[in-house]
Amino acid sequence: MPAITEPAPAKINLALHVRRRRPDGYHDLETLFAFATDGDVVTVEPAQTNSFTITGPFAAALLPAQNTTPTPNTTPAKAGAQLGTDNDEAPRSSSNAPWQGNLVTAAADAFTTAFAPEAHHAITLEKHLPIASGIGGGSADAAATLRALARLHGIAPTDPRLHEIAAKLGADVPACLANRTTLGTGKGDTLTNLEGLSGTPLLLVNPGVAVSTAAVFKTWDGHDRGPIPEGNLLDRALEGRNDLEPPALALAPEIAEVRTLLDAAQGVLLSRMSGSGATCFALFETPEARDTAATAARAKGWWTLATTLA
Is-above-0.85 flag for pTM? Predict the structure, then answer.
């Protein structure tokens, strides 16, 4: 049986409104999920025993050794638990790693328990996105693993058990499993499909700073500033906000530098921080305007991804 390859595209929050803290430790959210056309890649194939290999530019960020100095293009992981915005992986797996310690293998274990208890798989994660950076890398990887395994074993992508597994893995994983523009409510896993902005030029920029999601929520003032407004997607995003951006800025002022560059770029339609940071994004009128801004961001040593909305 041939290997199955699934994209794990970057997730962005066009708007993210935090409404209240829930008794389960998550927060009630309203968020506009959208996805890039680029990101990580997951490949699965049948095997005699389970194996997990990580390759790509950010593979080293998942190695257990912590004796390297982070650079602007090697984003360090955030400390603390993820609380309902991003469920990115912690840096505790390695190339040819044991079958443990990553959302990818957690997703594979949950899938095989539910659908194929006797099966074993060789999984390769090609890591292009910085970890724990507000763009759902770990959640997207887990979701892509579920989609790939479903294809491998002939499971319908709409099987409700896949959504149930995704919801248990993390608040962002159901949205990443759907992999389309949605309104997320509850803790982010109750999804309503929306008409998107497919093909809109998109730029992601990460300044290479560590931001703890737990610290961001702790710094958030707890004030409910109201729901995401109605309207078309771009208008809703423009009139919305990211309630986690002010506390993230207080913890990592470098985010403000990114926002300043993106806000001042020619042809920008919307710029904002995604999730709990530190990655920021901008939507542009033209690919040329996006690429000019990307060149300016790279000149500062920041990680960039010039892509489009899916």
Answer: yes
